[in-house]
Specification:
Blueprint lengths: L21 E6 L3 H12 L6 E4 L16 E6 L7 H11 L3 E7 L4 H9 L4 E4 L4 H17 L5 E6 L7 H16 L3 E5 L6 H6 L19 H5 L3 E2 L5 E3 L13 H14 L2 E5 L6 H8 L3 E6 L3 H17 L6 E9 L7 H8 L3 E6 L2 H10 L3 H4 L4 H14 L12 H10 L2
Parallel strand pairs: 1-2, 1-3, 3-4, 4-5, 6-10, 6-11, 7-9, 7-10, 11-12, 12-13
Antiparallel strand pairs: 8-9
Helix pairs in contact: 2-14, 4-15, 5-14, 8-9
Amino acid sequence: MDLNNNDNPNNSTPTRRHRNQIQVAICAASEAQHEDLCASLARLTEVNLELIDIAATPRSAATRTEGFVILIVVLRADSEMWPLQIHEWTERVPQAAVIAAVDQHSGDAVRQALRAGAQEVIFLPSDPTDLARCLVKISEAHHDNAANAVVCSLVSVAGGAGVTSVTAALAFALMRQQHKRVALVDLALQCSALSALLDVDPEHTLSELADPTSTIDSIRLESVLCTHPSGLYLLAAPNRIEESELVSATTVAATLGVMRELFDVVLVDCGHHMSESLVAAWEQSRYLFYFVEQSVTSVRPAQRFLDLFGRLMLKDGVDLRFVLNRFDPASPFTVDKIETALKRQLNARIPRDDRAFSELQLGGADFAAVAPHSPAQASIDNLAHQISGLVAPSNGRPAPAFFSRLRSAVGL
């Protein structure tokens, strides 16, 4: 159903989708909630929106939509099931961004919905202005990101936080969700853990790009990339520990600049040793995921990292997000205590699932292959969706005029 359809109603031929049209789908709502959301969308009369009819439940959805879609997912009462509910829909519509609609008018409900994988949250009954603001934010991010890769750095000052394992798991999930070109960069220069986890023996490494007299271009970069059987690309850490000293911040910045043009998503394993090279990677990143666990020896280094991050004042800004890895709901180090200590929200939780991560390390493959339906898979997929949900599809991007009309419709 097109909410702003000016085509001839007597023409039975399916109409071609307008270039500036944004697709919106309402998922798993009751009839009353569906009508409420439809009414709010219909009030945005100056916006070229198309409301897509999809199955009532994700399990019965027979086909996948094409292109970029915004899903408005009405979340059920049980907040513990929200990650699974969002995961079921994003698995069916892998290029979608998610707006969660919740009945509970509370900050805690908003935080839980965001942790579950939503990009934005609205309250029910819906308010057209709030809904429009969410559409503006998501659609503009989708437009702005169309030409550049999403670069995401993953780091933890405390060793053993599982950064490398999650980096690999995210890469596999991103490929499965969106079939994008995904590259990994191993900046844990002295460990070279990604090569071991992926079970590859790279002939060429990052150290070969360290020559300051030669320009790093796509040809030179492609000559040192290692290809994994899954289709992932790896820029490996130096083979010898002493060669890590050759990799400068300038080399890292130039390398990531070229990789942004060659790939859709670039994941950077930053390890736990802080250096100028890592700061150069953060300056190139859109997201910086810091990993923390439920222990004093993990939270205290995270506080020190926050102090460092604040003093760096990165010129272009980076979206710093905290990820709680190996989450155990029975631990005395509760989420509230960690958030209080950090004075920051935990944006995602990955449950403790030693079996699944052991299978990942042994098999060097996607959770969907080595540990399907494991507790960790849904959390990894939701985290991957936070990264990939706003990555532009390969068939172009909407014209800027669309956003002007969307703003004017709600007086923004």
